[in-house]
């Protein structure tokens, strides 16, 4: 049975996180993975080249060996396994899962906050603190999005939860109740 990319990313990311925890190298591995993500983002064709089955295996292996030179121990060995199992095209999903677990371990929840107008730094900080407290984390880091169609209020998405306090959703709710 072939696993979907999301499942592969979660499994491999979890395995790497658990190994890093055992070796007490969570932060080092995290930093190396962020470097690897940056390489993939700065050279978008790199991921395509490494996963292209039409290319000669020897050439692909040379590229991977060049990449591995920049990494040590755990990450290097892990990348070897990912390459050998032909999962290089899942690498960014693996990194995302590791990062999610790392942030959670650090007590950080990531999410987005949508408002009709820009928030002041103080307002955003206050909302982040409230969200962290509500979800049981030490800290929340919310990426701000402006969407005038919500009319007012806020919509927060974090930890697979949505808290919709927008005026638009409240008006929609009232329309639904009155329309019955």
Automatic annotation (TrEMBL):
The gene coding this protein: atpH
- Species the sequence originates in: Enterococcus entomosocium
Q: Which UniProt keywords apply?
A: ATP synthesis, Cell membrane, CF(1), Hydrogen ion transport, Ion transport, Membrane, Transport
Please describe what this protein does: F(1)F(0) ATP synthase produces ATP from ADP in the presence of a proton or sodium gradient. F-type ATPases consist of two structural domains, F(1) containing the extramembraneous catalytic core and F(0) containing the membrane proton channel, linked together by a central stalk and a peripheral stalk. During catalysis, ATP synthesis in the catalytic domain of F(1) is coupled via a rotary mechanism of the central stalk subunits to proton translocation.
Q: How does it sit in the membrane?
A: Peripheral membrane protein
Domain of life, source organism: Bacteria
Localization per Swiss-Prot or TrEMBL: Cell membrane; Membrane
Q: Which SUPFAM superfamilies match?
A: N-terminal domain of the delta subunit of the F1F0-ATP synthase
Gene3D superfamilies according to UniProt:
N-terminal domain of the delta subunit of the F1F0-ATP synthase
NCBIfam families the record matches? ATP_synt_delta, PRK05758.2-1
What is the first-listed, main subcellular location in coarse terms?
membrane
Q: What's the name of the protein?
A: ATP synthase subunit delta
InterPro entries for the chain: ATP_synth_OSCP/delta_N_sf, ATPase_OSCP/dsu
- Member of which family? Belongs to the ATPase delta chain family.
